[in-house]
């Protein structure tokens, strides 16, 4: 064991310009602003438009935002990890392209996918690389172009998801700040409740599957909802208990933005003041791997060195968990 911990030392974010409001969705599917707002907390989401623009476009913008804010020399970055459920292409990694485009020419790069928990699980991976002492600067980017896998005739999914990206820099810390503890879990029996069946390696897209729109994602919302509420809260409670963290010692809940009711339920379960709950679901919807770093980007100016942050996420797979991190800087 070393006395090095992995700390977040910078953040950046990017969302596309086009705003898909609840009012626009009312003209596309049988839904209404009241239903969407009361059931999810979402008012609008961002959609990436433009030919040949994929997830890497947003990952690059988020990384460039971080680089500009901090004057980071991209040549000093050792590793670029892109957490995403919507890679640009098959076989060609989104992260390698992203790293080259931002000038991280001395880095290696790889993608990871754990659906909506991709960024959370990515934090665990990059922390181990930092703690090893081998790598000094790691860029972890959470980015998803969810609009690429949504059927905009399916009101059960099209109202929830949006596009966006956030980036964080991880570096070594020797003051005890950064990653403190983590509890991560998976249950593959959950895959039937949130999935796109065709276009992967088990089922190629056929004329018939295309007509039936099986290349888009399907969600059994109620089942996912129940599992999300139980497991996200359960993981957060266990992290708090085993670190002797009373709710008054928690400064922020950084929860995956899938549904405001799920976030509220998690906050209630740990008895947390609503002012300590980061929330931006109303403007971005569920950006999958983008939600956690976009929260950090939006709330960066309010965060103080030493703040106790509890991260929590749940998503397809099922994959879920909670991470305890001490914030490492004042902005
Ligand atoms: O990030 C990945 C993990 N994903 C999640 O965590 C999402 C979890 N699930 C959810 O957030 C919620 O289940 C949804 C927001 C997807 C749906 O909310 P719900 O309260 O579970 O609604 P429901 O699916 O039980 O549907 C209730 C009613 C149904 O009508 P009936 O059968 O009661 O007449 C639906 O047909 O609402 C209807 N409905 C809608 N009505 C207007 C479903 N979608 C819509 C809609 N607009 N968009």
Overview of this protein structure:
The model has no long low-confidence stretch (mean pLDDT 96). The protein folds into two domains: 172 residues, Thiolase/Chalcone synthase (Peroxisomal Thiolase, Chain A, domain 1, 3-Layer(aba) Sandwich), CATH 3.40.47.10; 148 residues, 3-Layer(aba) Sandwich (Peroxisomal Thiolase, Chain A, domain 1). It contains eleven helices and 13 strands. By secondary structure, it is an alpha/beta fold. The protein is globular. The strands form four sheets. Strands 1-7-6-4-5 form a five-stranded mixed beta sheet, with helices on both faces. Strands 8-13-12-11 form a four-stranded mixed beta sheet, with helices on both faces. Strands 2-3 form a two-stranded antiparallel ribbon. α4 links the parallel β4 and β5. It starts with a strand and ends in a 5-residue tail after the last strand. The structure holds oxa(dethia)-CoA. Oxa(dethia)-CoA binds next to α2, α6 and α8.
Class from secondary-structure proportions = alpha/beta
Shape: globular
Strand runs, count: 13
Could you say how many structural domains there are in total?
Answer: 2
Number of helices: 11
Please summarize the sheet with the most strands. 5 strands, mixed
CATH topology title of the largest domain:
Peroxisomal Thiolase, Chain A, domain 1
**End-to-end gap:** 30 Å
Secondary-structure arrangement, i.e. CATH architecture of the largest domain: 3-Layer(aba) Sandwich
Text of the CATH class of the largest domain: Alpha Beta
H/E series? EEHHEHEHEHEHEEEHEHEHHHEE
User: What portion of residues belong to β-strands?
Assistant: 15-25%
Uncertain ranges: none
- Report the C-alpha radius of gyration, rounded: 19 Å
Q: Mean pLDDT, as a whole number? A: 96
């Amino acid at each position: 064991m070393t006395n090095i911990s992995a700390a977040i030392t910078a953040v950046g974010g990017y969302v596309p310009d086009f705003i898909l409001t609840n009012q626009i969705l009312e003209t596309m599917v049988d839904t209404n602003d009241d239903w969407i707002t009361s059931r999810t907390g979402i008012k609008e989401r961002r959609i990436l438009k433009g030919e040949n623009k994929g997830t890497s476009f947003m990952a690059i913008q988020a990384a460039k935002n971080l680089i500009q804010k901090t004057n980071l020399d991209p040549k000093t970055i050792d590793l670029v990890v892109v957490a995403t459920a919507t890679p640009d292409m098959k076989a060609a990694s989104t992260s390698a392209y992203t790293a080259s485009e931002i000038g991280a020419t001395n880095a290696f790069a790889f993608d990871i996918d754990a659906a909506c928990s991709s960024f959370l699980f990515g934090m665990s991976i990059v922390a181990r690389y930092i703690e090893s002492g081998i790598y000094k600067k790691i860029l972890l980017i959470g980015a998803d172009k969810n609009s690429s896998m949504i059927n905009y005739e399916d009101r059960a999914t099209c109202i929830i998801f949006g596009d966006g990206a956030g980036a964080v820099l991880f570096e070594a810390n020797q003051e005890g700040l950064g990653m403190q503890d983590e509890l991560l879990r998976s249950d593959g029996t959950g895959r039937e409740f949130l999935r796109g069946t065709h276009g992967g390696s088990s089922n190629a897209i056929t004329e018939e599957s295309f007509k039936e729109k099986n290349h888009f994602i399907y969600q059994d919302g109620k089942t996912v909802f129940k599992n999300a509420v139980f497991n996200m809260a359960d993981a957060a409670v266990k992290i708090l208990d085993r670190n002797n963290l009373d709710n008054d010692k928690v400064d922020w809940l950084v929860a995956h933005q899938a549904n405001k009711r799920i976030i509220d339920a998690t906050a209630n379960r740990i008895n947390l003041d609503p002012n300590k709950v980061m929330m931006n679901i109303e403007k971005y919807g569920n950006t999958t791997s983008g939600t956690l770093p976009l929260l950090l980007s939006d709330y960066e100016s309010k965060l103080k060195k030493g703040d106790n942050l509890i991260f929590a996420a749940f998503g397809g797979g099922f994959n879920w968990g909670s991470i305890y991190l001490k914030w490492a800087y004042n902005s």
